[in-house]
Structures are given as structure tokens and as C-alpha cells.
Automatic annotation (TrEMBL):
The keyword Transferase applies. This is Class I SAM-dependent methyltransferase. One of its GO terms (biological process) is methylation. It comes from the Bacteria. It comes from Streptomyces labedae. The keyword Transferase applies. GO terms for molecular function: methyltransferase activity. Keywords: Methyltransferase, Transferase.
Amino acid sequence: MTLLRDEHLAAAFDHAARSYDTLVAANPGYHAHLRRSARRLGLPRGGEGLRVLDLGCGTGASTGALAEVLPSADITAVDASAGMLERAAAKTWPPNVTFTHAPAERLAEAGVTGPFDAVFAAYLFRNVTDPDAVLRTVHGLLAPGGRLAVHEYTLGGRRTDRAVWTLVCRGVVQPVATLLGDGDLYRHLWRSVVGFDTADRFADRLRANGFTSVRRLPLPGWQTGITHTFTGRRPTRTETAR
């Protein structure tokens, strides 16, 4: 099976939207891990006076994490899948949360413009055709000194990391997803992770695209060595001038 990309991936997510929340709810720590990654942005005062972009919001799990951690921030949530976004927008949200349908590669066309004080991207970068181009877009959307947090499946490089990931996908996730009619998407999930950057390589990718103060932070539980938070900053003008 080849990886799903662009409109084919969006269509697969559209189809899976009806059961997506049920599947992720069965993942121990899923929502708690998203909140941990949101806290790792390190934004002060509950986000008061700040603009935050939730890039690839899906059915709103990442948006919910941001809204809980940063209740005073102005949160713009974006996703390429109309079906996932419809599920997200149908939930109850405070007035400081808005949703926009747009792929990460065409944000400006949808009216999503900076500067943002922070960007949060969960489970996004291994699903885009050109992650470097999207990182450059994110860099440009951030205000100088703005912060990025990426919450992503990125294997740590040990054989056991890939083995655990494969066991979970093939033994649990894929059989259930196949019964729900979404086998292609969750086979893509397995392959997209094993074919993507290791954690160290993704951290290097952030640095190569202009982010500073890059940190790779593990998540606890069964996802240790499988899922990481990456944080970084767009340099201030003073730092850039040095």
C-alpha cells in the first residue's frame, strides 16, 4: 500500500470522522498527552491576549487540549478534512475558538494569516507531502519569538519502538478500523510513522527550517519512544540580526 496524500488522505479522514473519536478514546493517555504537549508551549497567563493556531485539528481533540490549557487565548483551528472539521465544529466551544477548512499548504487562501504567538500541530507533519514547506509556512506565520509545539508519532530509533508500534497497529488498531470500513486509513497510519523521520531527524528538520531552542520531549506510557513533543521558536529580530 502506498501512502495516502492530499485529497485522497482528506477523503479517508472524511469517511473515518464518524468513528474517529471512539477509536482515539480507546488509546490510553491520548487526551492527557495532548494537554501535556499544549502545556509545553510554555505560554503565560492562560494565553491571555495571545493568538494560537491549531494546525490539523481533526475532530477537535487538540483544540480541546489547547482550550483547557490556554482558556484565554484566541484559538484558530484548521483542518483539511471537511468531515473531521464538521465533527469538531459541532461540539460546544467557547467564543474564542473558531474553525476554518483549509489544508496546511493553502492557509492564506482560506484567510488564515499571522502573526500567531504560537502554533500547535498534532499528528500533522508525517501526513503532508512536503513537511519542509509546511514548516516554512508555520515559521512565517509566527510572530518573532513565537513558539511551535509539534505532537507527533516519531519513533525513537530503537528496534523495540518500531516493534511496539507495529504490534499495536496490526494487533489492535487495524482490525478494529477494518471492521468500521476505514482499513486503508489506519494502514496508512502504520506506514506513515515507520516511513517518517525518527525523533532526532525531525528535531534536525525543525532547526534546518529556522527554528531555534528546539527540544525533543518524550511522552509517558506505552507511547514512550513512539510519540514525542517537539518545541521550538521563531527567532526574534535581534537574534536574527546577530
